[in-house]
Predict the 3D structure of the following.
Amino acid sequence: MVGITSYGAYVPMWRLERKSIAKGLTGEKAIANFDEDSITMAAAAVMDCLNGVNRESISELLFASTTFPYLLLQSASIVAAACDLRHDIATADFANSLRGGTAGILSGVNAVIAKTASRAMVVAADCRLGAPGSELEQTIGDGAAALLIGDTDVAASLEASYSVSDEIMDMWRTQHDNFIRAWEPRFIAQSYMRVAGEAITGVLQKCNMKPEDFSKVVLYAPDQRRAADLARSLGFDPKAQLQDPLIGVMGNTGTAYPLMLLVAALEESKPGDLILMASYGSGADAFVFRVTEQIEKLKGKARGMKTHLASKKQLDDYRTYLLWRGLLNPTDELVYMPYASYGTTSTPAMWRERNYILRFHGSKCKACNTVQFPPQRVCTQCRAKDQSEEVRLSNRGIVYTFTLDSGSSVVDSPVVDCVVDFDGGGRGEFCMTDRVPEEVELGMRVEPSFRKLFFREGIYHYYWKVIPVRTNETKTGGK
Amino acid sequence: MEGIRDKVAIIGMGCTKFGELWDKSADDLVVDACYEAFEDAGVETKDIQAAWFGSCFSGFQGSALATPLKLEYIPVTRVENLCCTGTEAIRGAAYAVAAGAYDMVLACGVEKLKDHNVGFGKVRGLPLDSSQIHLDLPPTNFFAKLAVRYFYHYGISMEEGRRILAQIAVKNHHNGTLCPKAHLRREVSIETVLNAPMISYPLGLYDCCGLSEGGAAAVITTPEIAKSLRTEYILIKGFGISSGAAQAELRSDYDYTYIPENVYCAQQAYKEAGIKNPRQEIDVAEVHDCFTIHELSIYESLGFSPQGRAREDVEAGTFTLEGELPVNTDGGLKSFGHPLAASGIRMIYEIYNQLLERAGPRQVKNARIGLSHNLGGLPPNCAVVIIGRPD
């Protein structure tokens, strides 16, 4: 049996209220903070999926997106490093298609069946831009989902899949475009109904099942209405069976969208449930999953969709959204960031420091157990030389002291600069993001979050910040 | 280990007006500061056998001092240790005289900061390119984090804490009004300080020193030559320098209630100078009030107040001009601004003038032993120099 052995998701903390885009619009959409992109969201989703899973067991990471920051430089390897996965694993990017996430699932499943991978992590993330004023700007959202594919402890076995390839210019973007281009919605809808319908019909025939056999049908949807139209046209009962497309609270998250909706369906599922899932984009992929007893063991481990959707902060300010997306283009002086005020980037230095920049490693002294971050050759406590081992710092810590810097950033003012003591050792100075400055206090519980610091000299700089813990955990610890 | 005590004399000092000196170059500052020092010492350029030139950003080799002064082919060493640079230039010069290598030397520190646009963030700098991922915030933020933790540790509310700090700003601004060479020369009220815009919570605008430009210089020789040349001179009693090894960043047991480097450099200097009870024995002090919380912290780390109890002395007026131990009699960094390499020598210049009873309306009575202190960089490098009258 091959299938999903763990799931995770990531919905950014911030929701843009649509009425701030234009009067009369309703609902909200999930938007990446200024320091998030597809890579950082993918890393967050993979870490959510890894909750309770041994990192060492992952032997492949497949990353799908239409918004990879680099056109030449693998994003999957950055995500794998940020999640501190093994060095000897296969990594690949699935680019340019809204079906990339489901292509990743197919590839991961095949790798496990072929025994080229024991466990394959499939992650999809998107952070797309609709042109200001366009309808797409209103409907698309940002997010990520991760599925771990394996053949042991399977929580949702893959029963069958069916794919259709169909060339059509309905939605596209070239390297010259900042924004998605699309033909009119009715043209997209007819293609969606036809092609996704064909894939779903195909998979039903392949496994000889009928719509009423399924507890949930999970559909990529260009908009709220079309998913219901498609479900109804194929004989499903949209009210009872259609997984909520979440357009009103999250938006269409592109490549990540069908995977995020599948995670939402899995969270609500029970052993024995059958779930049909379909993606769309230059064709369609349809899947039938059967939920096993194992699903109960996964519940509550990942934050998944439910906790991430519930944990949110509203943004009612369209100008800030434009600033975050780089669409206001303030001058260089105005965006003076709390980083890199002098000198230029050295990529050899980035490479040498990769284990703490990406993997969040500190050094633990074998002589006295002191954890230092970043790693040091000589121990600050006992001065033992070259006797440390690298350890990844804990995913929880407390704010030991902090300040709010009013003058060092336009996009992130005040900069919350804090000294964090991590559980199990290690202290570091980090910027706090996804925070309300007035709520920052001594002893506050925080977690590390992999973020994009800034883009300069053609380089995206990634590193760790901290965020207030995104659950119902106690807000403060020992001071 | 005998130390430097009473082996070296300062016989002349000079200091430019500090401020936004749009019409002065670094060369102008060198000439103005050094010629005032030469005149004070009664020496000429040709008498100088070696020189130490302090500059963080305003000159990168000895020739940057030699050229404007036309020092002819003598050794000139450029010194850089961030905010301790000026004191380090004096220290290098003093050690050379104490070693017997030279009879008469010059130490000078200058800094032009306003020729760079967009403030402090652009003038700091390390020579090497890097991965660029480290938080790179103005130094206010370290001291703000110290303040947050200090107040918490000693059970001082943020409001009380800010009011204690405001008294330090008010004192220093008052002293600055009495000093013609200060940049900012106006009184401020507690309310003005408390209502000013927040810079790095909980530090507001008046908790921070300004960015200015200036230069200062000293002529250093042996006590014997000093005595033969003139009646007025002072002696170096002790130096202390302490360089941090990122303990605050690396160790979870560092508690952000004080800066250990300040304690260690003071202890070194006190030992060398033979000072047992600094509060009793130091008559006047210039300390690195880059931010008000730092001056509060220094009172404790330098042994002027018991740890955690400096607020009592602030409230008692201990460190005012009329107080038991006047601190920052010329207005400090608060009034002068902080042109990095110039500040240390400017501060020694004030102590020198106090000891020689040349401080005019801000003269401290019977000042015989004085102290000057700097902190620079993070992890900090801290410096203390103690000077005294020869009699």
Notes: The mean pLDDT of chain A is 94. Residues 349-468 of chain A form one domain.
